[in-house]
């Protein structure tokens, strides 16, 4: 209650704001810390191998397609569905694209376009069953998992189909060397600079918007620390990516991933369609009574997932220089795990693109670090399974205790007795399920 | 067992929910071998009282004593009240459609032999039980293949299987037709002859008059009186007077209506039940609304009020059969909700948590959710406009929240309802249909919401107000339609209306004027 506790509490709030921890992002805040902790842990255990140029480049190109799937998957899960078919769809699109280039001699840019069209068609097929017939997505995509896996093996005769050189760029390509020899890859450095400036610009704009709304933004030092921290990470990563073995730099697939993350974060947060996805997943009936066409939303979300799965499939094929019958096996599980570790709710309505990417990175770093340590894939699976279970378990348990998250719990525990003073009227609130509320306005 | 022997006595029951006293000092005394009716308006506290009795609200969550068969009892849950011989049959039947009659009767109470279910004796007993309730169907029939009337009888058979001493029936005939109702009432009377007492909650006063021995009337969570049907010369008017008799003084803000021309009209509206095609839930209904007018729609639960409202609002309920909608003299077609919103209609649903709000959202996102195009350029939602406009509503409606970024789940009922009202005011409607806008809200917030409704009318908007509370309709509206079994039975200027006549039109099918 004293001034001191108030200050401490505000300090914590501001500290959280550095990491974007607002009302709704508390979970993301926690998972971001887990990611940092895991990176530091493996950095120590592998004696610096984790954060080496070669390993980072490897990490990005090896997991970019899973992260691309996670982007589509989080939207599917926010809308209240699931997609089990993504691995098979990726494999199907991969073999179709590879065959189109090998047997029908499509030039590779046309083949990529063709692959995306295949994704649209598959997505329309699955979306049709989910949205307009009303078959649960679990069933539709379970069927799709079988259908498109079989399709892959029929088209490829259960054989591997190689892809030409140009095509491999999207999976195995790097930013080219241009300009003077600086010891670093110039384009990667340029990219890093652009990102670093964008971080500053974004924070500045966010403050302007907040001021425009008439609310007080966090203290300036919070923004400053936030920008400095983020840019330090960006510059550190840039130097690692740009200063690796000659011929390698930032992977093209990483750039595709980055563009998609920015695009879909914007779509989910700032567009009418994005709002409708959350609305349908959060309360379908209320959404429909607000004029949302829930069928259209479900259709588009399922379709989008298959398009991204096709893209992921093509990137994988490009990286492995051939499409095979075992491509994309159990990718759906990695994507779904990433989304749930990233804070999405099984019941729908909750989840973010950035959260899922962080969740995916947790899995990726874990996988990569254990591999570097020479842990067998059998044990890696056990550990990944435990991480998924514990991460979601902790979240569910905390919610059932009325706490937003572990970090929320920790920060709350340090500010005893301040709840009443800080958040006045709304701390009175009525329980959700317990019935009518206590009066907030005295009877006239 | 003498005639005056008391089987159940509930003494000074008081039950509070956060902020609302649902029951205040309610007492009721049921004689053994009697049918005891409980009457009251929707929300008077009847169901809460029965939930207290049956252990849904466990002992300790309320104050007062329950004495059953001369012993004080403390039920922890439904199982313990059933063990004592009190069985409640809810309005929504608790049968499992995919299981057979026998399986349903013994669900949770299966007779076993060496640890396995003894289906032979179960079937034998269910045949006996079915005979007692006058049902001749094969006990292997699946529940979904028998009608609602017979399902109700299976519920009673299930109660009998638990050697019931006191049977509680909540609106037992609400979903039944005339013949099935009569059969059920006869059965209840027959059980009475066999020493099984019943408590019956019903809105159908003629049925109560017919079967009940005594009637307790509850209003606003208090016992008003207990009438002895045979001695007190009870008739429907007498019951209605006790049910609604309360003063209306100063519960409503002052308001002078400025009523304009008729601008909205629904003509000969017919709607079918979405599942049961043979049931018409709205029949040949015609209503008109003038600018600046608050029109009430009075009806008991299940009369078709919500169904009428939702079917007008972009056919969001049932199967549309026929009818026309006119707005400003032009016929309009509202085939879905977004067309309805586009034509300036708004519908505030009766269930704000299930239908009105996405509880995951924050206040600002909720307020703008029904018309995102208003704050968007192309497909992109402007966060600044969202904040500014929702902030304006927060201030003008005095929504109590730390900020518009706050989650609606954490707001009180009254403030959630204000958010829902803001959400629909945000769509700039010409006609607002408000379905039970003050349900579950305390008195203070109610007063504020009344003020908001009057303010909307003062801006020249039309309002259709659906409410189960007659005083609310009488205090707020300019004109009232009554609806009974899907048909508009009357249309009364509010200044000429009183609770008794309204209740009569709400409970009888005799059709008067359809509209003015």
What descriptors fit this protein?
heterodimer; A: 444 residues; mainly alpha; ABC transporter involved in vitamin B12 uptake, BtuC; 2 domains; two-stranded antiparallel sheet; 18 helices; 2 strands; disordered C terminus; B: 516 residues; alpha/beta; Rossmann fold; 3 domains; six-stranded mixed beta sheet; 17 helices; 24 strands; globular
| Average pLDDT figure of chain A | 84
CATH architecture of the largest domain in chain B: 3-Layer(aba) Sandwich
**What is the total number of structural domains of chain B?**
3
Approximately what portion of the residues of chain A adopt beta-strand conformation?
under 5%
Instruction: Walk across the major sheet of chain A and give the strand order.
Output: 1-2
Unreliable parts of chain B: 511-516
Helix content of chain A: 55-70%
Percentage of residues assigned to helices of chain B: 25-40%
What is the tally of beta strands of chain B?
24
Number of H- or I-type helical stretches of chain B? 17
Shape of chain B: globular
**Average pLDDT reading of chain B:** 87
Show the helix and strand layout:
The complex is a heterodimer of chains A (444) and B (516).
Chain A: H1 3-18, H2 26-45, H3 53-78, H4 86-102, H5 108-133, H6 137-155, E1 161-162, H7 169-172, H8 186-212, H9 220-242, H10 252-270, H11 272-282, H12 284-289, H13 294-320, E2 322-323, H14 331-341, H15 353-372, H16 377-400, H17 406-413, H18 419-422
Antiparallel strand pairs in A: 1-2
Chain B: E1 6-17, E2 20-31, E3 35-39, H1 46-54, E4 63-68, E5 71-72, H2 78-84, E6 86-89, H3 101-105, E7 112-113, E8 116-117, H4 119-132, H5 148-161, E9 166-170, H6 178-193, E10 197-201, H7 205-211, E11 214-219, E12 222-228, H8 236-244, E13 262-272, E14 280-290, E15 294-298, H9 305-312, E16 319-327, E17 330-332, H10 337-342, E18 345-348, H11 352-356, H12 363-368, E19 376-377, E20 380-381, H13 383-396, H14 413-425, E21 431-435, H15 443-458, E22 462-467, H16 470-476, E23 479-484, E24 487-493, H17 499-507
Parallel strand pairs in B: 3-10, 3-11, 6-9, 9-10, 15-22, 15-23, 18-21, 21-22
Antiparallel strand pairs in B: 1-2, 1-4, 4-5, 7-8, 11-12, 13-14, 13-16, 16-17, 19-20, 23-24
Helix pairs in contact in B: 4-5, 8-17
């Amino acid at each position: 209650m004293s001034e001191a506790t108030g200050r401490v509490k505000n300090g914590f709030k501001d500290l959280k704001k550095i990491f974007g921890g607002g009302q709704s992002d508390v979970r993301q805040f926690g998972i971001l810390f887990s990611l940092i902790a895991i990176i530091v842990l493996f950095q120590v255990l592998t004696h610096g191998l984790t954060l080496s140029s070669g390993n980072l480049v490897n990490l990005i190109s090896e997991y970019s397609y899973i992260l691309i799937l996670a982007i589509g998957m989080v939207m599917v899960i926010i809308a209240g569905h699931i997609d089990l078919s993504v691995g098979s769809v990726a494999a199907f699109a991969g073999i179709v694209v590879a065959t189109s280039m090998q047997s029908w001699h499509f030039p590779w840019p046309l083949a990529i376009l063709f692959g995306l069209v295949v994704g649209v068609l598959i997505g329309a097929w699955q979306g049709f069953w989910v949205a307009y017939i009303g078959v649960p997505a679990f069933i539709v995509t379970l069927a799709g998992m079988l259908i498109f896996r079989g399709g892959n093996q029929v088209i490829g005769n259960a054989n591997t189909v190689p892809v030409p050189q140009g095509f491999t760029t999207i999976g195995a390509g790097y930013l080219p060397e241009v300009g003077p020899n600086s010891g670093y890859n110039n384009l990667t450095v340029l990219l890093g600079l652009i990102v670093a400036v964008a971080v500053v610009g974004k924070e500045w704009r966010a403050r302007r918007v907040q001021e425009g709304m008439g609310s007080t933004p966090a203290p300036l030092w919070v923004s400053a620390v936030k920008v400095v921290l983020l840019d330090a990470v960006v510059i550190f990563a840039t130097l690692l990516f740009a200063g690796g073995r000659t011929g390698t730099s930032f992977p093209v697939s990483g750039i595709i991933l980055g563009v998609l993350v920015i695009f879909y974060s914007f779509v989910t947060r700032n567009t009418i369609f994005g709002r409708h996805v959350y609305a349908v997943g959060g309360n379908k009936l209320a959404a429909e009574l607000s004029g949302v066409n829930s069928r259209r939303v479900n259709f588009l979300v399922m379709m989008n997932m298959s398009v991204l799965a096709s893209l992921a499939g093509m990137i994988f094929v490009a990286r492995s220089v051939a499409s095979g019958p075992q491509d994309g096996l159990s990718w759906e599980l990695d994507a779904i795990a990433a989304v749930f570790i990233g804070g999405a709710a099984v019941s729908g309505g909750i989840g973010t693109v950035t959260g899922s990417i962080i969740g995916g990175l947790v899995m990726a770093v874990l996988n990569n670090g254990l591999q570097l340590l020479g842990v067998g894939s059998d044990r890696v699976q056990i550990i990944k399974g435990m991480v998924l279970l514990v991460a979601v378990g902790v979240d569910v348990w905390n919610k059932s205790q009325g706490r937003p998250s572990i970090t929320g719990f920790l920060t709350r525990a340090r500010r005893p007795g301040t709840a009443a003073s800080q958040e006045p009227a709304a701390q009175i609130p009525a329980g959700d399920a317990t019935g009518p509320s206590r009066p907030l306005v005295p009877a006239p | 067992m003498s005639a005056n022997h008391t089987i159940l006595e509930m003494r000074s029951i008081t039950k509070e929910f956060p902020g609302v006293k649902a029951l205040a000092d309610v007492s009721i005394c049921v004689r053994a071998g009697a049918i005891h009716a409980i009457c009251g308006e929707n929300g008077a506290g009847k169901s809460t009282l029965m939930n207290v009795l049956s252990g849904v609200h466990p002992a300790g969550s309320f104050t007062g004593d329950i004495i059953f068969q001369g012993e004080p009892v403390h039920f922890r849950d439904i199982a313990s009240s059933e063990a004592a011989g009190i069985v409640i049959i809810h309005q929504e039947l608790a049968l499992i459609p995919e299981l057979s009659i026998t399986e349903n009767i013994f669900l949770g109470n299966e007779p076993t032999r060496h640890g396995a279910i003894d289906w032979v004796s179960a079937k034998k007993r269910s045949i006996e039980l079915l005979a007692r309730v006058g049902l001749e169907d094969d006990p292997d029939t699946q529940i979904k293949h028998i009608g609602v009337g017979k399902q109700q009888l299976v519920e009673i058979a299930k109660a009998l299987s638990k050697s019931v001493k006191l049977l509680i029936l909540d609106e037992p005939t609400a979903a039944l037709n005339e013949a099935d109702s009569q059969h059920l009432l006869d059965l209840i009377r027959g059980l009475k002859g066999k020493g099984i007492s019943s408590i019956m909650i019903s809105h159908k006063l003629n049925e109560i008059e017919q079967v009940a021995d005594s009637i307790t009337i509850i209003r606003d969570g208090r016992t008003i009186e207990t009438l002895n049907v045979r001695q007190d010369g009870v008739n429907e008017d007498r019951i209605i007077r006790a049910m609604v008799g309360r003063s209306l003084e100063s519960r409503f803000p002052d308001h002078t209506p400025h009523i304009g021309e008729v601008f909205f009209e629904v003509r000969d509206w017919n709607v079918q039940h979405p599942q049961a095609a043979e049931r018409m839930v709205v029949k040949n209904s015609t209503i008109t609304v003038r600018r600046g007018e608050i029109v009430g729609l009075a009806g008991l639960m299940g009369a078709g009020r919500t169904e009428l409202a939702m079917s007008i609002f972009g056919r969001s309920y049932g199967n549309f059969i026929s009818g026309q909608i006119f707005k400003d003299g032009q016929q309009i077609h509202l085939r879905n909700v977004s067309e309805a919103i586009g034509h300036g209609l708004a519908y505030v649903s009766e269930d704000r948590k299930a239908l009105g709000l996405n509880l995951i959202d924050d206040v600002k996102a909720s307020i703008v959710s029904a018309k995102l195009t208003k704050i968007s350029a192309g497909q992109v939602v402007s966060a600044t406009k969202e904040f500014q406009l929702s902030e304006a509503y927060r201030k003008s409606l005095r929504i109590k929240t730390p900020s518009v970024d706050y989650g609606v789940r954490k707001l009180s009922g009254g403030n959630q309802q204000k958010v829902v009202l803001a959400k629909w005011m945000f769509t700039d409607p010409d006609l607002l249909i408000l379905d039970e806008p003050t349900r579950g809200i305390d008195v203070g917030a109610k007063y504020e919401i009344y003020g908001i409704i009057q303010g909307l009318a003062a801006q020249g908007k039309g309002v259709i107000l659906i409410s189960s509370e007659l005083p609310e309709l009488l205090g707020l509206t300019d004109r009232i339609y009554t609806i009974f079994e899907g048909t508009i039975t009357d249309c009364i200027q509010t200044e000429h209306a009183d609770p008794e006549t309204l209740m009569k039109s709400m409970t009888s099918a005799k059709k008067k004027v359809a509209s003015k």
